Records
---
Amino acid sequence: MSQKVESGNEGDVPQSSLSSAGRADLHTHTTHSDGAHSPYDLIQRVHRARLEVLSITDHDNVGALDEAIEWGKGLGIEVISGLELSVSLGEKDVHVLAYFFDHRNQDLLDYLTFFRRERLKRAERIVQKLNKINVPLKLEAVLEQAGVGSVGRPHIANALLDGGYIATYHEAFERFIGTGGPAFEKKYQLNPVDAFRLVTNAGGLSFLAHPGKHMTELELSQLIKSGLDGIEVVHPAHDDKLKAYYRGVVNQYFLLESGGSDFHGGKKNDDHTLGMFTVPMHVVETMRSRLFS
Ligand code: AMP
Ligand code: ZN
Ligand code: FE
Ligand code: FE
């Protein structure tokens, strides 16, 4: 890969990305889940942010990958297979990122189809709950938001916003669909062991996504014992203290580190964050060497 020399002011490129040659963003979403941008559009933005490696980690969906890998080749961007799964840990909904797996693995594809069907059923239940509390949102409006992507709460939030039922995107979660809210519904309960096995059997690595402030040591050790390979250290929800803490956990348990922006785009208003939450190439190479050495 060519070495890029950064210099001067680069117009609309975010300041922090001026030193981002040889860097990777391993957590992004497209229209194949709840992201606002198509794989093509995302790759163009990643190119402008001067990243060299990208992983697309759509929720329960690998539909963006083939296309993105091809677009990436044309621009010198390596696209690593990625996926975000949701698992249940006690009462908590915990996110798991998978990398480097075979995104054509039939067993994995069958499970993802099942998870997406369960998401659709859940969206129906949420709409029913909203209707019962006199918010006459229609399922069609949600499905229109989702398009080809796995249906999620962000689509419901967007539909509520476009329908004029709320004034801001976040109000959807605060008033209706956030955890414990009057229209909240749980997702399919996949347990961590099954999720990690699915990823391992498809040749990949599993990472705990954005653990944030609310993960107990007991929960962490439970996940590690269940076969977790690594932890997402770099994430917009992690300040320097949290990053240092999780880097410590990674070192203590001989785990791997990952990181990214969790970029969604659009109404989430995070279009400026691409290039700001990255990991250096040696992090990617360490991940790869755990699988292929
Ligand atoms: P789902 O996978 O359908 O449960 O949707 C989860 C997504 O909803 C997360 O990845 C966030 O993007 C978004 N989300 C969840 N809780 C909130 C919240 N309180 N405020 C804003 N967005 C949220
Ligand atoms: Zn998302
Ligand atoms: Fe997540
Ligand atoms: Fe995410």
---
Amino acid sequence: MLHALANGEEAAAAVSSPKVTGTAVEQLLRLPILELLARANSIHIANHDPNDIQKASLLSIKTGGCPEDCAYCPQSAHHREVSLTKEHLMQPQIVVALAKKARAAGAERFCMGAAWRKARDGREFDAVLEMVRGVNALGMESCVTLGMLEPHHAQQLAEAGLTAYNHNLDTSPEFYGNIIGTRTYQDRLQTLDYVRKAGVEICCGGIIGMGESWQDRAQLLAVLANFSPPPESVPINKLIPVAGTPLADQPPVPALDLVRMIAAARIIMPRSRLRLSAGRDDLTLSEQLLCFMAGANSIFFGDVLLTAPNASENADSQLLDAIAAL
Ligand code: SAM
Ligand code: DTB
Ligand code: SF4
């Protein structure tokens, strides 16, 4: 089912009962914004407690030196001009101690990212399994993103109790080749399929602001919505243009583009957890509230994402105070 959607809308039309087409999503994305927001909000509150904004904490457990060439990513070894200190895989005890600290600060989910092309058997993968078990033992949801997996990796992660595996499609099948040359859309879909089959939730989303069109944004959302079921969580990232990456000079994305993406995602994926992810630090408090009205119900919490700055803990306590009851 998943691989049938690799070519976007055409492939989506070929499966027996396509639920969502790229064209229909683009129509949603282009609606007058107040109408789009109203429609998204009514679906949001029918399916979720609007006060429930999940706080996820993110940690880079292995930083930099990645053999993939993702144009947006400061961790790619292809982008030599990026100023980043490479780090080996962290020790599980340290990771679990940091998860405990994040839990004390209010995080409910702990996401661990490794700059790997793919998981490999051996000591390092075993250490990741230990991290997953340690995070679960704290009563937190656990998520890892390790690049491509083979079925037995997904199975071992499932046995360790992993809640979710993050593996983003990033953009439309059509635009993908402009951003990444070292792996295909089909490779991504394959890993997601293994994860699903192992019984682990999938966390899969994308990035806006890489030079893609509205049609590409619509196609990405259509591919996600046509998963059966749609991903349990969907991170929507706004490009952080990092100096030294090929996308360093991309113009900034208007905040309302992000609101439109979230609203359309909420309409076509009513039950998924939508995470307002990278790029939140340059949104105002009111712009973030619009994202929550549109259906976002999760944020990354903590001063850093993987390597780039996030909204500060100070700004986030103001945000959380502002959305709490008086
Ligand atoms: N190597 C793994 C992989 O690619 O799946 C995991 C780590 S990777 C950094 C996780 C996700 O972060 C990417 O798929 C991308 O969507 C997002 N990301 C990376 N750099 C970003 C940037 N500069 N701005 C916004 N999102 C970014
Ligand atoms: C996701 O979609 N966004 C997060 C998480 N999944 C792993 C990562 C954002 C990374 C932003 C750039 C950086 O911090 O290096
Ligand atoms: Fe590597 Fe992931 Fe960055 Fe791509 S996004 S370069 S796979 S760490």
---
Amino acid sequence: MTVPKFGLTDHTAETIRDGKADVIVIGTISEGDTVALADGAAAVDEAFDGELLSALKALGATGAADEVVRVPTFGRVSASAVYATGLGKVNGDAPTAEQVRRACGAAGRALSGTKRALVTLSQIDLRAAVEGIALGAYQFTEYKSDPGEAPVKNVDFVSPADGTGKEHKATLKAATAVATAVVTARDLVNTAPNDLYPASFAERAKKLAEEAGLSVEVLDERQLKRKGYGGILGVGGGSSRQPRLVRLHYKPSKPKAKVALVGKGITFDTGGISLKPAAKMQEMTSDMAGAAAQLATAVLAAELNYPIEVIAYLPLAENMPSGTAYRPGDVLRMYGGKTVEVLNTDAEGRLILADAIARAGEDDPDYLIETSTLTGAQLVALGNRTPGIMGSDEFRDRVADIAQRTGEGGWPMPLPDELRSDLDSKLADIANVTGQRWGGMLAAGIFLREFVKDDLPWVHIDVAGPAYSDAVWGYTGKGGTGVPVRTLAAVLADIAENG
Ligand code: BES
Ligand code: MN
Ligand code: ZN
């Protein structure tokens, strides 16, 4: 899917009265037990001779988040309806970026079937409004014979009062690019696992990346074997669809830093011989969300000409039980030579990631950012909307701060040393699981740390819960969410600016 066609417009009474929009979107705020109009709505209210607010009250509007109230205009303006979308309660002077993003997300969904909309919430925060509308409008109808009402086609955003036209244009461009990257990641996650398997994922990655000017290398099973990628081969061996390792390289002329990206690409996770229970197993179609996010982010870095070199690794494999599958008890020789005793074939993500992380270290990056749907324990610890962020202390805290600002959330988590000895193996250098349940998310992070080059600032972002949604809220629908693309994009932008 693509994002709607976006434009900017100046805020004049004429745009409101005689514009081309079919629907005008305004924001509402919860104030005590009543509703108020948000910034940007005043001009619309004027066209209603100040009666918009009483109409909204009569319709039961409260201004709560995820509330969209439709008001017919009865010809007072050329648009046929005003959609009032709730920002919730405002603490302080203005709604937060996330409140704007969420309200615009709900509006973006409600706008399905509309040809052209005019959005006024951009006067509060243009960037958040664009992201919210684009992500709220997202639909994945690839497999539907009758896709229903199409997403809104054209959206004009009223320019904010401060800043120049040039700045607004740049903001619109960057926000549209980021939203497009999120959409790319969502599309990949939502594609069924019979269509998206290692080789077909690699093909799609190659096409997307080459179009954006990145160089692409894909290792197939023969090359993986020759180079000693024991983790990827071990995990992928149970499937008739053989594994791949994709490497994407974006190199601007004078890069300020070099960043390695690594994302887990298990195109389906049955658990392998340590088979998962049937309930909800279909959700393991999202077990490649990390690889999808890194692919989208590497492409985005090129599209926005970030002055940093980016090398992304996508280890791709399908975890299946079969006569050729790896088993509990196997010892794998990983890329770089370390050996791993497999105690549970369902702890497969860390095995393919270990190979990719070891390989990424050879490029001598300044930072390494890995993300994966790695553990059910992430959901136990942080719920299904908050990524767990682990890694080297300073960089971890920097990434967690940035994650908070994007609205994707994300919380710093420790890698306690005492868990390392739980990974000791009698047979090999390390085991792939501990013998106990506690701190499962952290133990996985500790396992990954073993493969990170010494002194390299790195993070591991566990998005097992946040990458996939079974509920509809704000700018998130059911299925792939695209998390953590906005965090990754913001971290790269921060490195591009501050080194
Ligand atoms: N892909 C799963 C983790 C997962 C669980 C993602 C729920 C999304 C939602 C991962 O490969 C896995 O199976 N992890 C095991 C590890 C365990 C065997 C140590 C888990 O979390 O149960
Ligand atoms: Mn698993
Ligand atoms: Zn998995």
---
Amino acid sequence: MISRNLILAALAAATFTAVPVQAEQGDWILRVGAANVDPDADSDQIDVAGLATLDGVDVDDNTQLGITITYMLTDIWAVELLAATPFEHDITVNGVGIDAGSTKHLPPTLTFMWYPMGGQESKFQPFVGAGINYTYFWDEEVDGELEAALGAITEPVTGSTDPVPADLDLDDSWGLSARAGFDYMFNDKWGVNASVWWIDIDTEATIQTELADVQFDVEIDPWVYMLGVSYRF
Ligand code: NI
């Protein structure tokens, strides 16, 4: 009976002391959670020095720790910065299914956000936004499978099927982004969030070998999904 009374008392306290749950001017919202970058890759074909044409590349998805920090400029307008631990993606050659290599990247994204229910007493706070992304690639690596394939392709020139050592370079990308999601606040400080970005990330890839440099464009254009905890202060 005591525990039942305690629960009832706690429920009553929660009901009657609940503070209005709303985003308002001057608030900061920190979100931490799992962020999945899922590329919708569209790649040019790869012309290997006139000797062969490969079907372009595909880029797999990767999940890291995502962090966003939002500042409410007014009750309904805000700016948000997306940060994360570095994403690492495997790259495969389309059609032939060989591993091309991998890359790491960080896609910091600054978004101008609209909270249509900002300033209203609601636990549910949806948002939409548009912004700008900068994506920095580093630690690009070429897989031995691609070097072996280059060896086979270049045999008419080199007279050997030995693997051709190669380096990969991906240009940095600036692009626009779109964003939508919501916070569901349990109280004045804590809640959960679910959201998505679409980011226009386009890069020029260069495969460098002693024989030739091969360049091709890759549109990565990922969907980024995030689920996490929200903290307002
Ligand atoms: Ni694009």
